[in-house]
Design a protein that fits this description.
There is one protein chain. The chain is α+β, with helices and mostly antiparallel strands and about 280 residues long. The protein has two domains: about 170 residues, no CATH class; about 90 residues, Arc Repressor Mutant, subunit A (Orthogonal Bundle). A hairpin with a 5-residue loop joins strand 4 and strand 5. Helix 3 packs antiparallel against helix 4, helix 5 crosses helix 6 and helix 7 packs across helix 9. The relative contact order is 0.09. This is Transcriptional regulator, AraC family. It holds the Pfam family HTH_18.
Length: about 280
Amino acid sequence: MSRFAALSPVLGHSPAAAPAEPEEVAAGYLVVRSSGATAARQALDAARGGKTRADPDRVQLLMRATLPRHLPPAGTTIGFGDCELRVHPGDRQGMVLLTVATHKLSVDFGELRPLLFRQVPVERGLQSLFATSVAHLLAVAETLDPHGAKAYLLGLAELVLRTALRTELDRADALATRRRAATEYIREHLSDPTLTAERIAEALFISRRRLYQLFDDGDGVSGRIRTLRVERAKELLADPALGVRGIGEISRQCGFANAAHFSRTFRKAVGQTPRDYRDEVLGT
């Protein structure tokens, strides 16, 4: 019997246990999720349209890491009271699942919501620290004091969560600022039919790839330009003072190449032609 398999009788856990869905986390990313009876009740309440305000019993951190080569192929589980470490070897990097009691964390569970159930990028330094800490603990787990080991794992979870949360909040704030700047530039240049992602990126001094990342939650850069042009067109068509202005002229003001393209795009987005929309809004 390997010394890792021998851990389980000492610590009271099954050595065959392995993290669920080991393929769900990509290398270099962290997934934080809730678990336990409260989390299950929250899932049921959500399915029924209700809400549960109580925090989940446990928080789980999933991350890939380079693990000792002599781990059992089926993985191993070690537990120290409120903390549990489950590892599952892989070809290059294994999966690590660290579970800690929510009430033991100094950070409030509500503050962790930006991290929940999504792949959060983790800086290489933190990845290395996490992997090294896990590997060292696995190497000497059977000789450790359970109370000290529990504090060690809880501290490791706190370090990962706090660092990832700070980085994610900073990143989200930076993304929001960049996105607002890009949107404002688009609004200022809507009438220019040659407006492109390349021009927007140059104006903001960022790469096109970075610009695409700012709008990867919808229809992309071209979709945002198109949406803003349709919104501008709706404003112009609904203005009584511009009721005598031709559809072609409005299409040019909104940056469409020609009236036909404007009509097709507008009808697809609004469900009416520009002329019908104007007649309905102005009551004509």
